[in-house]
Amino acid sequence: MTVSARSASARLALQLQRIPLTMGLPLLAAVLLLSVTLAVTIGPVDLSMMTAWRIVLAKITGTTGDWSMAAENIVWMLRLPRVLLAAAVGGGLAIVGVAMQAVVRNPLADPYVLGISSGASVGAVLVLGLGWFGVFGIYAISAGAFLGAVGAFALVFLIAIAGGQLSPLRLVLAGVACGYSLSGVTSLIVLTSDDRELARSAMEWLLGSFGNTAWADLGLPLLVLLGGGMFLLSQSRALNALLIGDDSARTLGVDVGRLRIMLFIVLSLLTGVMVAVSGAIGFVGLVVPHIVRMIVGTDHRRVLPVSMLLGATFLVWVDVGARMLFAPAELPVGVITSILGGPFFVWMLATNRWKPRET
Amino acid sequence: MAHLNVDRVSVDIEGRRIVNEVVFSLERGQFLGLVGPNGSGKTSLLRAIYRVLAPRSGRVEVAGDSVWALSPRDVAKRLAVVAQERMGEFDFTVSELVGMGRTPHKRLMERDTASDFAIVEESLRQVGMLELRDRQFMNLSGGEKQRALVARALAQQAEFLVLDEPTNHLDIRHQLELLELVRSLGVTTIAALHDLSLAARYCDALVMMKDGCVIESGSPQQVLTAERIEAVYGVRARLSSSENGLAIEYNLPGK
User: Are A121 and A278 in contact (CB under 8 A)?
Assistant: First the structure.
């Protein structure tokens, strides 16, 4: 990038930072709503946006209309829950990424990098391959993934804290180490299983998908997203302070130890639930917060809500791509996010967006 | 009642005694300078005072309350800190950074009010950084960074200021301006300082430390003598009075 282009983009960023949230957020919410509507109309059966909305309104108010039963089922039973889940998971993964990056003070952190998604994968494969957690019935995979995510987060946290002080670098290294080991465990379970189908079903889950989403799958993710989002937003100032360092945060009145533990609980819950309902979708928590910070700066009071809306919109469109690119075959969502995310990661490193700590 | 009371404070780090039974007190509005060579325990003592490093034994009281009996937030309302800090990978604008000084005063979800913005602006003006408010902190020079951190401490509107080598990275003019500014605030201040002449000129009292122990405390004239400087720093010193207080000339021993 040339100097003038860089300063032009800096000026643009400064102007965007001046846009008050009261204008920016409704605008982004409107974009999300439009995206959801469009995503519902796109598919093998073409529907108009008008029809889609009328069906949704009729369903909510309990009336009927002049559309076919097939159209109603496609909108209400097939597409809308799926699109909404994609939005919830996208928003959730994005704010998890934001908060994790603040906790480890490193913009390269996300559930994937910290090994938490790998933990969830182990849990899911234990269910698929060995029939663990059978008591949870149809929610067994979700329960397994959730427990795996929480377990992995706890493991990473304990390893990082073993040396006494919890340093951001130790947390990242512990995450990477655990991620590798847990991926190995997943492969081991899949390869040593007698179940021939396991490799395929595990693969499908590991790559992430919103296929076969029903309304019943939506409640928990939405609840956790709202609860977790409110909690994180309420801690915005503390998260800001945490970014300049533990000591500085303490001198600004933040109880750093307590905040870390609370964040640990909330982030495990958020990641666990999101991964449990959708599989291991990588890089959303990395790409979205990074782009958002480039636009609105570092203040979490802006970054969190904007990331949530942008993350939701992003994943809605990725899911549309997953359905349409190779239709009628469906791509796993995680494949697309990885193909987009990997090069993005490299670009971050190459353009010095991520600067090593100055000494 | 003394505004700050440090009562037999000892700090251990990894089993080693870093600060040993330090005792002193500070009256409201006084400016106390903490002097001593590298590794004498100044920073650790300050960290114990601003409630980041738990002392092994002893008490630190601000206006009669032990800082370890108060919540971090209550301490932050009373006591603002300018420490030697390094930013991580994330950058803030100068006004965002200074605005963080308002953190201990804000409740959950409370928004910045017009008075918060006014306080931030006034703090920036006091350190002469108003023009640079929209710059990114990391792109500032060392001296500008230091002044921005002082502005953040001012925005905290605490009655007590702790400065750990505030004149580090500052050129001569900014060193003088910063210490003049701190003096003019009339806020109770404790500062770790390296420059003994500046310490003598701006401080009401000095505490001189070596190897974690207080060697001497009292007025600058009492504390700063050629013999004591030689004993503590291992340099020969020649002191002479000058227009602005004290001029000190140093030499390595044997030269």
Answer: no
CATH number of A244's domain: 1.10.3470.10
Return the C-alpha torsion angle A322, A323, A324, A330, nearest 10. 80
Q: Which domain holds residue A327?
A: 85-350
Q: Give this complex's ipTM.
A: 0.88
The pLDDT, as a whole number, for residue B102 is: 93
Which token pair is B19?
A: 């600060």
User: In this predicted structure, what is the pLDDT of residue A2?
Assistant: 45
**Shortest Cα distance from A214 to chain B (angstroms)?**
35
The token duo for A297 is 């700066």
Beta-carbon count within 10 A of B201 CB: 17
Which residues 280-299 in chain A show a CB within 8 A of chain B? 293, 297-299
The dihedral built from the CA positions of residue B114, B119, B123 and B126, taken in this order, carries a sign that is positive
Domain for residue A264, yes or no?
yes
Q: State mean pLDDT over A146-162.
A: 86
Shortest CB distance from B76 goes to which of A244, A251, A357? A251
Q: Per mean pLDDT, which range of A113-117, A145-149, A349-353, B107-111 is the poorest? A: A349-353
Question: What is the percent of chain A where pLDDT is above 90?
Answer: 27
CB neighbours of A259 closer than 8 A, spacing ≥ 6?
A: A235, A238, A242, A249
User: In this structure, is residue A232 part of a structural domain?
Assistant: yes
Following DSSP, what letter does each residue of B24-38 receive, concatenated?
EEE-TT-EEEEE--T
- Which residues, in sequence order, are CB contacts of A344 under 8 Å at separation 6+? A283, A286, A287, A290
- Residue B89: the pLDDT is 75
Mean pLDDT, range A124-135, rounded to an integer: 78
Count of domains observed in chain A = 1
Lowest-confidence region among A83-87, A272-276, B211-215: A272-276
Least confident of A61-75, A309-323, B86-100: A61-75
Q: Do A251 and B81 touch (CB under 8 A)?
A: yes
- Chain B: closest CA distance from residue A16 (Å): 13
Q: Indicate the residue of B76, B89, B91 with minimum beta-carbon distance to A253.
A: B76
Q: Look at the block and give the residue holding tokens 């910045």.
A: B112
- Residues B231, B208: Cα–Cα separation, whole Å: 11
Which token pair is B38? Answer: 């590298």
For B130-182, how does the pLDDT look when each residue is reduced to its tens digit (9 = 90+)? 999 899 898 888 888 888 999 999 999 999 999 999 888 888 888 998 899 89
Does the residue A65 lie in any domain?
no
- Give the Cα separation of B248 and B237 in Å (integer): 6
Q: How far apart are CA B51 and CA B89, in angstroms?
A: 25
Is residue A51 situated within a structural domain? no
Mutation target among B51, B79, B103, B157 for the A interface, most CBs of A within 10 A: B103
CA distances from residue A117 to A130, A153, A271 in whole angstroms, order as listed: 19, 9, 8
- Share the mean pLDDT of chain B: 90
Q: What pLDDT, on the 0 to 100 scale, is given for residue B163?
A: 94
pLDDT value at A230 more than 90: yes
The full length of chain A comes to: 359
- H/E segment holding residue A210: none
Tell me the mean pLDDT in the region A56-73. Answer: 82
Locate the chain B residue with the closest alpha carbon to A14.
B134
Q: For B153, which residue in chain A has the nearest alpha carbon?
A: A252
